[in-house]
């Protein structure tokens, strides 16, 4: 899976000059490049939110969240990867974006709880 994402990322970098405006992509390579940019931003936001939440947690709560996050990553990868006879593993970038956005929203909900009523340890194991 990492090879496919890396390949798509490298292809996108090679064609960066062509993708002047992601609102008006000219071909599928432009679309891949723009999709990659959007996903990278969403992933960066997820990681920043996760780090903010970790700072609010006690040691045991951090461990619980970390285990839940690893479980989520495995579930996300499984949900967004398909096997193709012709191409092997294929990553559904729209699925990755959707899963990442949903997880960021969930992390933001936990962060708001920590900031208002206190961190609820039982909610971190999801």
UniProtKB/TrEMBL annotation:
Annotated signal peptide: 1-19
Keyword rRNA processing carried by entry: no
Keywords from the UniProt entry: Signal
Segments forming domain Lysozyme inhibitor LprI-like N-terminal: 27-107
InterPro entries documented for this protein: LprI-like_N (IPR009739)
Name listed for the protein in its UniProt record: DUF1311 domain-containing protein
Source taxonomy: Bacteria, Pseudomonadati, Pseudomonadota, Gammaproteobacteria, Moraxellales
């Amino acid at each position: 899976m990492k090879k496919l994402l890396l390949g798509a990322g490298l292809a996108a970098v090679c064609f960066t000059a062509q993708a002047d405006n992601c609102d008006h992509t000219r071909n599928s390579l432009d679309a891949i490049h723009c999709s990659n940019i959007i996903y990278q931003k969403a992933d960066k936001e997820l990681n920043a939110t996760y780090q903010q939440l970790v700072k609010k947690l006690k040691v045991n709560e951090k461990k619980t969240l970390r285990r839940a996050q690893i479980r989520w990553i495995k579930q996300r990868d499984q949900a967004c990867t398909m096997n193709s006879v012709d191409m092997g593993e294929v990553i559904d970038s729209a699925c990755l974006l959707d899963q990442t956005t949903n997880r960021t929203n969930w992390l933001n909900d936990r962060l708001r709880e920590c900031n208002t009523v206190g961190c609820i340890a039982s909610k971190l194991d999801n």
